[in-house]
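Something for you to look into today, if you have time. Could you write out one complete protein record for me, on any chain you like? Leave the record below and I will have a look.
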Amino acid sequence: SSQETDTAEETEAARQKALDIMGQIRGGADFAELAREMSDDPGSGRAGGDLGWFGRGQMVEPFEEAAYGASVGELVGPVKSQFGFHLIEVQARSDQEARLATLARRIQASPVTLGEIDERARDFQYYASEADDFEAEAGNYGTVETVQITEDMQSIPGIGTSRAITNFLSSADEGSISDVVELSDKLVVLRVTGVTEQGYRPFDEVRAELEPRARLEAKKKIQSERLREVLQSTGGFDGLAEAAGVTERVASQVTYNNTLVPTLGREPMFVGTALGLAQGELSPVLEGDNSAYVLRVERVYEADMAAFENAKSGIRDELLQRKRQQVRSRWLAELKDGAEVSDYRPRFSI
């Protein structure tokens, strides 16, 4: 069971603040300057609100719908999401993605509100334990969400990482109810509904996870076969996109340090293949993580060897330190495997 730590009054105050900022922007104030000064998002705030390019499914739903519903240059908001209120300005749009700038205002709960929520959460924990009816009591206090986790899972879906929760789960049995756990944006009380012994999970449990992956693999195979047929008929890259009924796209600044490819997402195979080809060379049909594609290297830029020579000493020291750490970790792991050790660290908070 969880309870959000904000009230209607505090939500309205945050919305009014966002409206005030929106009025300043429409009155001629610079969006980027206001974002640096007023935004509660530390990442995009420092960049003047710039979120870069993103596609469908990468943002929370209210934010995404507002962004895709706006025209280029249009200022929209305040848009409320789980992170607060946002002002959104669409700066550019392609046939695949939108480039946005955003200014976020977080909803802050007052100490009085936090105290009231904490008291209600502790009341719920007490009555749920005494009445032995967790779901019925939860209906009077907050919302109930059910998640399935494994013993080695570091982050719990919908909750995140919490040492207090890890400590509770390490010794909890079926039916156990936790104390009130305070997270960054909510208070939660957990109840263990069941404990499954280690082994293979039933197919019905994993079906929802496997079906999308199986469909994706099947789609990639179909796309690959179609691309091979079209590539064979065209005899090369020119005319391939038109014959396949897709749009030819250009990816620039492809390096080993960046596996994020515009319009494709994170594609290590694309980057590795591109950097292994000579200028003008054509790749075979590739099946990446997100799609099937053929690429041709238009231009290869040589590395700045002078800069590399200047940085070589530092790079050598960093690689040596990393190698030493790997050897040390492997040595400690082998010592641990050969010893009888009981690890009780998760029971103690730091």
